[in-house]
Amino acid sequence: MTSSDPRRDGAVDSARSGDDGCEPAGTRDGPGPGEPEAPALEPIEKVVVVGTGFVGLPLALLLADRGKRVVGVDIDSNLVRAINEGTLHVDEAELQALLESDAVERNLEARTEPTDGDAFVVSVPTPLTEPTKSPDLSALEAALDSIRPHLEPGDLVNVESTVPPLTCAETVVPALEAAGLEPGAEIQLAHSPERILPGDVFAELVTNDRIIGGIDERSRRRAAALYEPFLEGRVYYTDLLSAELCKLVENTYRDVNVALANEFALIGEELDVDMSEVIDLANYHPRVDILQPGIGVGGHCLPIDPWFLNEVDPEHTNLITTARRINDKMPAVAARKVRRTLAPLADPTVVALGAAYKPNVDDRRNSPAERIVADLRADGYRVRHYDRHVDALAYDELRAVLERESPDVVVQFVPHEETVAALAEHRAWLDDAGIELLQFGVGNPIEP
Ligand SMILES: NC(=O)c1ccc[n+]([C@@H]2O[C@H](COP(=O)([O-])OP(=O)(O)OC[C@H]3O[C@@H](n4cnc5c(N)ncnc54)[C@H](O)[C@@H]3O)[C@@H](O)[C@H]2O)c1
Ligand SMILES: CC(=O)N[C@@H]1[C@@H](OP(=O)(O)OP(=O)(O)OC[C@H]2O[C@@H](n3ccc(=O)[nH]c3=O)[C@H](O)[C@@H]2O)O[C@H](CO)[C@@H](O)[C@@H]1O
């Protein structure tokens, strides 16, 4: 595709400001020597964040903490009530502290319907339709519909959701035009995909560099101003399509590299070699940095985002879709391993530890551990499932759980720090009680 492609209408070339192509957020007050005076930006006092889930809520909290008036909009009325009544609990201490802070109580209001504002941030889910793996943009479209009556000339619309390439051009621009506002001319449009790492959200939101794609320079600068109250990372400007692609390329890179590690682990299983050790040794090479094999790739991003690239260019995504399939089969590989342990036992009871999609988080979306437990239960095995981080499966003392359940086998699927420590502490007791222990997890995928 060339820059004259009509689908990129409105996009401009990278507008980078510093010598190194980036600029610290909000630190450029005036033009450089010989540069024309940039027109002043309208201040952003009130921000409407549409979708106050994993991505939208932390942004709403940080902006409210820094004195902005923030309206968090979510169709989940229970979530809205919990935010307003201060009863919401989140799994990260810094975010929980913000939730309970006076500034947030003063400045953040949650609602089920949008209202007017200076800037609108869209952070709603963009899942896949199963089994076709095509993007489901219905939440994005509904969110755009819902803000339409509240949009006014001069407002900023900034999409943070991860979206398939060309979504801004083909879905967001028409939605804004339908509101009677020409993106770029009358209303500003930016796409700044969120890249925070679950488990370290607060720190990454503040310190990560931001990619800001905009339909024009003013949109990009205004979006940078939105993040300025808290952002310590640098801002890199680009066009809308490149910002969409950047997010997808990042997650695809990670997914493909986990698949490579998983494929190595499968070779190791075939040869009866501990591939984790081989990978550790290979990583001493100065130009090798292999990721860790695991029981599968879960979460809301890696299992989904590579398919967005496949959607726009199926011909050139062979490696990417093969990697997806390798990662998707890893839970079945782990389940097979558990079955081998259970097969000789008569009517065994299993305690399964870990339901989150990765260590030290409470998120269960696309969790490989849950898939394995479901498979084992479908086989008829009695599996008691626990996870320290997941409210519905939580427990206080691992030892008390084990004494109560009296299992034949304990399987650690997710190496949460506390789980690993507790199992180490009770190892001798497990041995004495004749309880077999299998420990899976990143770095120890196949060979418990
Ligand atoms: N979870 C992550 O690690 C992560 C990280 C970076 C980017 N993203 C991307 O950010 C986007 C949001 O993901 P998330 O993890 O925050 O999802 P989430 O499910 O945690 O939160 C989304 C929220 O949007 C609400 N919602 C749905 N439709 C709505 C509508 N029409 N109006 C208002 N609210 C609506 C839902 O009720 C939910 O509370 C996705 O595109 C995702 O791919 C996610
Ligand atoms: C490029 C990148 O870093 N993107 C991050 C990613 O966040 P994430 O939490 O989804 O990513 P991971 O931590 O990689 O976990 C995913 C799954 O892969 C398994 N895994 C991991 C490493 C490994 O060596 N072996 C494995 O098996 C792990 O157990 C888990 O199931 O997407 C977010 C949303 O877009 C981003 O915002 C965020 O920056």
TrEMBL record:
Compositional bias per record (Basic and acidic residues), positions renumbered to this chain: 1-19
Q: What UniProt keywords apply to this chain's record, in alphabetical order?
A: NAD, Oxidoreductase
EC number(s) reported in the record = 1.1.1.336
Annotated stretches, region: Disordered: 1-39
Provide the top EC class: oxidoreductase
Q: Mind telling me which InterPro entries this protein's record contains? A: 6-PGluconate_DH-like_C_sf, NAD(P)-bd_dom_sf, UDP-Glc/GDP-Man, UDP-Glc/GDP-Man_DH_C, UDP-Glc/GDP-Man_DH_C_sf, UDP-Glc/GDP-Man_DH_dimer, UDP-Glc/GDP-Man_DH_N, UDP_ManNAc/GlcNAc_DH
**What is one Pfam family matched by this protein?**
UDPG_MGDP_dh
Q: Which SMART domains match?
A: UDPG_MGDP_dh_C (SM00984)
Residue intervals of the UDP-glucose/GDP-mannose dehydrogenase C-terminal domain: 351-432
Superkingdom in the source lineage: Archaea
BP GO annotations: polysaccharide biosynthetic process
Which GO molecular-function terms appear in the entry? NAD binding; oxidoreductase activity, acting on the CH-CH group of donors, NAD or NADP as acceptor; UDP-N-acetyl-D-mannosamine dehydrogenase activity
- Write down the SUPFAM superfamilies for this protein, in alphabetical order: 6-phosphogluconate dehydrogenase C-terminal domain-like, NAD(P)-binding Rossmann-fold domains, UDP-glucose/GDP-mannose dehydrogenase C-terminal domain
Reaction(s) catalysed by this chain, per the record, are: UDP-N-acetyl-alpha-D-mannosamine + 2 NAD(+) + H2O = UDP-N-acetyl-alpha-D-mannosaminouronate + 2 NADH + 3 H(+)
> Could you say which protein family the record assigns here?
Belongs to the UDP-glucose/GDP-mannose dehydrogenase family.
What is the recorded name of this protein?
Answer: UDP-N-acetyl-D-mannosamine dehydrogenase
The organism named in the record is: Natrinema altunense (strain JCM 12890 / CGMCC 1.3731 / AJ2)
